[in-house]
Each structure stands twice: as structure tokens, then as C-alpha cells.
Amino acid sequence: MIEFVDMSNNCNFIGNPILEQHKLRYNAIIERQDWNVPSYKELEFDQYDNPATKYLIYRDEGGVVRGVSRFYPTTLPYMLEEQFSHFVTDMEIPKNERIWEGSRFCIDNTLNASLRKKIINEIVVAYLEACLFFDVHSVVGLMYPAYWRGLFIQAGWPIEFIGDVIKLDDGHKARAAILPVSQSILTNVRETTGIHYKIVNFGEYYERKKAA
Prior knowledge:
The protein has helices at 17-32, 79-83, 113-133, 145-152, 183-193, 203-211; strands at 2-5, 54-59, 65-73, 99-107, 138-143, 160-161, 166-167, 173-180, 200-201. The radius of gyration is 16 Å and the shape is globular. The relative contact order is 0.16. The two termini are 24 Å apart. By secondary structure, the protein is an alpha+beta fold. The chain has a single domain, classed as Aminopeptidase (3-Layer(aba) Sandwich), CATH 3.40.630.30.
């Protein structure tokens, strides 16, 4: 199960999943990958962690966060727009309430390969379930090409690259892409991953709003 968490519904979940995902990101991004990004008391964060941010969080039976990714509205200044706009050469920088940015896709690398893959696939399905729930038609982001393949393309999600492969300041190559969202794509990803059940827990706050 993937928890869809933001500042409005964090209290619907046991513990503090938003705080805990910052810990996983610190381990994955700063300790393991040595990124030069802000941290505080072993919590990784940036300016795109704020009241507008939404998180997809996988926790194990003990409540430990083992996987996370985040969404951010493109109607606000967002990371691809502000930090990496030169990666987008095939279209205008997206600015639309129905387009979200996806970023900070992190999995606990101490887990075995099969469990890591399970969590990856659940988060990918959760991307689609969450976007359809909120009537979002696309997700835009920047990743290493190998990550686009390993996370999304192999799961059966057709993506559209919106710029060339370009080197980051640290020498790694990255590429911007936009991921279309539809019920048919979700069906295809379910067939590819074998996840045929509802994967996202939106918490009582959003479930009530949807039912109203």
C-alpha cells in the first residue's frame, strides 16, 4: 500500500510519514549519492518541500519508510522550471494545473532486489492512481535515462522525452520527459506489473472530499 500524504492529511496516518520520508531521502540522496543539497538533522529537503507538496510513501510493517516520490504543482515555480529549464527543448516549460512535477524517487537500497522492484512498481502504479484521482493528465520530470527505463518504461508506461540528454554539473547525464496519464495506461501498467488492486491510501481527508 502507498500512502498519499500532504500537510492536509498527514494526521490521518500513523506516526509522521512526511518526517520519515525526509530521513530516507537523506540516506538515499546525501549519504549514498553524495548530492550537494540541503539537510538538517539527517533530513534531506529543498524549497519544493512545502504546503503544496504531495508525497507517495511506502512504509514497511514496522512503519519505516522504504520508498518515496513526490509531486509538485507546475502552476508554482517548480524544480524543472527553475533549476533545469535548459533540459526542456522540445516544448514550452509546462505550466498547467493538470500537470504535476514528479521528483525525489527514492528506494531503500538496503532491501533485496525483489523487494525494491516491488516498491518501485507500487509507486509507479500509485503515480497513475493519484493523478487520475485528482484529474491530472501528465507528470513532468528529470531523471537519468537509465532511471526512466528502469522505473517507468519497463513498467509499461510510454513516456515522451521533451529534450536531449544533457550532462548535469556533476557529470551525470539526465533527460527531461513528460508522462501522459490515462485509464488505459494504468491498465497497461497493471498488466505489466501484476498489480491489479487499488494501491493508494489517500487518507480520510481526501476520501471524504471525493465523496462529498
